[in-house]
Each structure stands twice: as structure tokens, then as C-alpha cells.
Amino acid sequence: MTAPEWRISEWLNSPEPLRLEAQRGRVVVACAFQMLCPGCVSHALPQMKEAHQLFAPLGVTVVGLHTVFEHHAAMTPTALKAFLHEYRIGFPVGIDTPGTGGDPMPQTMRAYGMQGTPTLLLYDRAGNLRRQVFGHVSDLRLGAEIMSLLNDTRMADGAGDDGTDGPACSVPD
Predict the structure, then answer these.
(1) What pTM did the predictor assign?
(2) Which CATH number fits the domain that encloses residue 114?
(3) Which of 40, 92, 138, 164 could form a disulfide with 14 if both were Cys (CB 3.0 to 4.6 A apart)?
(4) Which mean pLDDT values do the consecutive 10-residue runs of the chain (173 residues) have?
(5) Is residue 1 part of a domain?
(6) Which of 46, 26, 35, 119 is CA-nearest to residue 72?
């Protein structure tokens, strides 16, 4: 099943807006994050930087999705631009479109039913969402899953394992 399109209000580190559908033929690794999420800053974003460096030459698109569900006043596009510069994040980052009608959940986060940040999204070459994990995934596991998708083999379903290996920031009730 084809995954829902990202709902992005602005793209950073990209000369033009990225659409998930336009990435067909490429493996896509996306990470939903918040710049004030400790697990994102210490684990997920460094991992995405490394994935971008290692796998982009092999046809993998790495994308950050800044999904702000708390501390809205502090996490502005201007603050995010400074954050990306300071942390030397060069891969494309989309700012998730805010919720509507007083909904604090950003639209992409809501469309995917994300629990919080970081959330890893892995898409196959056909644009299908093959894996969604809330929390940190080990580098070895992520690398193996990316290579599996690059080799067009089916990933294990992970039955009995939620796939997380570390800290995460949950959406408040």
C-alpha cells in the first residue's frame, strides 16, 4: 500500500519541495524529529546524518521531518534553520504543517499516527511504507534494513519486537 504524502509547509536544505511520490525508484529513510527532543538530538539525527553520508550514493533519499507537537513558540523555522546549521545537518528537512482547528498535532504526524519523536519511516522503491518505528533503532539494524530494501528483499515483520533501542519523546495525552 502506498504511503500518505508528507504535508510540509516549508523545506530546508533543498532547492525545491520534495514529494514522497517523486522519490519512487529510490529507497527513502525519513526521521520525524523535534529539535528539543533529547533522543532526536543524541541518537536519531546523528544516525540520519550517517545514513545520508553512507547511503545517498547508493540511491537512498534521507529526509528529516520536523514535527512540532509541543513548545511551538520555541521551535520556529528560524530557530530550526540555526539548529540545522549548528548541528551540520545537510539533508533535506521538511517542516510538518501545523494541525488545523486547534489540533496541536502536525498534519504528517497525524496522517501517520505517530506516537512522538523520533519516529523512523522506511519506504521501499515503490513508495510503500515498509517500517515505522517510534524510538531509536540501532545503527546496525537500520543499515541492515536499508540494505534489504536496496536489494529488493522483503524485510522481516519483526513480530514480537517493537524495534526500539533507546529514548523517545512521547506525544502528551
Answers:
(1) 0.84
(2) 3.40.30.10
(3) 92
(4) 89 95 94 94 96 96 90 80 96 94 90 94 94 94 95 46 48 50
(5) no
(6) 35
